[in-house]
Design goal:
It comes from Erinaceus europaeus (Western European hedgehog). It is a multi-pass membrane protein. The protein has 11 helices and 3 strands; from the N terminus they run E-H-H-E-H-H-H-E-H-H-H-H-H-H. By secondary structure, it is mostly helical. It has one domain: Up-down Bundle (Rhopdopsin 7-helix transmembrane proteins). It has a 3-stranded mixed sheet. Helix 2 packs antiparallel against helix 3, helix 2 runs antiparallel to helix 10 and helix 7 runs antiparallel to helix 8. The protein starts with 7 loop residues before the first strand and ends with a helix.
Length: 313
């Protein structure tokens, strides 16, 4: 049977209405700018302020960098398509986008796991914190996260694009993602994808176990603290982190493990946004909204900018 090989893909359009497309571009542009400013601010603050040169902010800085890369891999292309009324993405562009999304998502899971370990040591073994969470250990955890993410990115991308794509080239998603791409293949063997999925599940499950065990010890230790105020402070620090991790892993699992729909589904689009768009936008708010150190560092920077402006006048 003859097939026409796919040389480019078409990303799903949210609407055929010109007005709705402009509103979509405006909304995604606003979300992207907010995420860009938030994550850039955290990166700069944790670099410039000496008081933020601790393991906790070391991981937070790299989490912000990952979030920045993740949202930059998906939203700008979607915004551009809405503005130019073009839905296409090249075969190579799709492969690169898929690689970056998988790499950033997988590395972020690793960083979130490292952050949970950091909170465990800080709360459960405070006297040994500086010894255990040394700079060398932090760098090792960071390297493991990046290497794991890069390996999974290469594995998933190679496995997906080793398949033959023919016939329809319309991806039912606003960016190139594995489940949506699998609906377009005419290949009958999925061994490489199955292996990739198995490795990805094992990686995510191992990280989840580390996080659950860490927070199990953390909550057990916190409940033994006699002071209600100290308990409240510890829970306010840990619960948002646990919420972020749970949402991130759950939506990722739903997107990759459930059968892909034959037609565009609003649920599929919402789920994909929860692991590709929402984390980069909400992570800075969740981790820094009630963080006194970040607020103090920001006020210092704004104060210095204001003072320098006055002096120039």
């Amino acid at each position: 049977m003859n097939h026409t090989l796919v040389m480019e893909f078409v990303l799903v359009s949210f609407s055929r209405s010109l007005l709705l497309l402009r509103l979509h571009a405006l909304l995604f542009t606003f979300i992207y700018l907010v995420a860009f400013l938030e994550n850039s601010a955290i990166i700069l603050l944790t670099l410039l302020d000496q008081h933020l040169h601790t393991p906790m902010y070391f991981f937070l800085r790299h989490l912000s960098f990952l979030d920045l890369c993740l949202i930059s891999a998906t939203l700008p292309k979607s915004i551009l398509n809405s503005l130019t009324l073009k839905d296409s993405i090249s075969f190579l562009g799709c492969a690169v986008q898929l690689f970056v999304v998988i790499m950033m998502d997988s590395s972020e899971v690793g960083i979130l796991t490292a952050m949970s370990c950091d909170r465990y040591v800080a709360i459960c073994r405070p006297l040994h914190y500086e010894t255990i969470m040394s700079r060398g250990v932090c760098i090792q955890l960071l390297v493991i996260s990046w290497v794991s993410g890069g390996a999974l990115g290469i594995l998933y991308s190679a496995a997906t694009f080793s398949l033959t794509f023919c016939g329809s080239n319309k991806i039912h998603q606003f960016f190139c993602d594995v489940p949506a791409l699998l609906k377009l293949t005419c290949s009958e063997e999925f061994t490489t994808i199955d292996i990739s999925m198995a490795i990805g599940i094992c990686y995510a499950f191992a990280c989840l176990v580390c996080i659950v065990v860490s927070y199990g010890y953390i909550f057990s230790t916190v409940l033994k603290i006699p002071s209600r105020q100290s308990q409240s402070k510890a829970f306010s620090t840990c619960l948002p982190h646990l919420f972020v991790v749970s949402t991130f892993l759950l939506t990722g699992a739903v997107a990759y493990l459930k059968p892909a729909a034959d037609a565009p589904s609003l649920i599929d689009l919402l789920v994909s946004m929860f692991y590709s768009v929402v984390p980069p936008t909400l992570n800075p708010i969740i981790y820094c909204l009630r963080n006194k150190d970040i607020k103090l560092a920001l006020s210092k920077v704004l104060g210095n900018v204001r003072n320098s402006g006055v002096m120039k006048q």
